[in-house]
Sequence to fold (343 residues):
Amino acid sequence: MTDAANTYSGPQRILSGMQPTGQLHLGNYLGALVNWVALQERGAECFYCIVDLHAITMPHDPKALPDAVRSAAAAYMAAGVDPSRSAVFAQSAVPAHAELAWIFQCVARLGWLERMTQFKDKTGKDAERASVGIFTYPVLQAADILVYKATHVPVGEDQKQHLELARDIAARFMREFDCEGAFPLPEPVIQGPGARIMSLRDGTKKMSKSDESDASRINLVDDADTIARKIKKAKTDPEPLPETAEGLQNRPEAANLAGIYAALAGTSLETVLTEFGGKGFGVFKPALADLAVAKLAPISAEYRRLTGDPAEIDRILQRGAERARAVAAPVIAEAKKIVGFWG
Fold:
């Protein structure tokens, strides 16, 4: 755990991003995008990048990557991220990310990365065959955050370990080079009932872009009929919904669907169970489908409108990159000076 005091006194900034791999889905929307929009509305300086540097740690199609970046940017904006207020950009368009990552790789310690659980989850028994990038990408994540001196990072529960690593790297950098206050120790922002949305086919697994079954997730591009069909076919158990949250214990699919309803409705799980407790899924699923369609259909329509004009998306990404580079430039210059680089 980081034991350094957070002595940074700069402005409040928000940084977050997603990989341009696969279609963004309901879990991304409720677990991240809703939060991003809320943070934007509070007036914080927000940087929302599409992390294409991270995307190449795994095999990918270079010809498809630019369109994947555009698709992710369109999904951000369709969900409510306003590029006139928040910088929306491709990570690779700001070279300072990679420059600071190298400096931080020389500060981070091997043992820190060996303890990162996601590396083990991603590689399993094939760790020795994995790219070095998969092993070191948490250091790049730290650079992503700290190259803007971001003070707060919206993260899911499974990313808290990575944010703690970023804090450890920042603290060690400042101790090692006697530059207290050079970087903030970024704080996590975890809020909202939809922080962790599970698969529609298995309530014990997180909803994922990489799941082979498209029926396991609701994509932000799904039309109304597809959304309703996926919810109708979502895995459940034979019991009616309970009247209290305690009754959802050991019922992961029921808990997931009730949680999705609460998140989409902007209400509490208790309120949902008060309304639907004692009722079967034959009643609850149609209500959930109607709510999901009402919330997501406008996002899908806006996404399709945006992706119909890729040149405009490119202009937005370029403007976002220019804003990001302007903020990152003095930070990387300061870091280079601190470590003693020439020039």
Observations:
- The chain is about 50% helix and 5% strand.
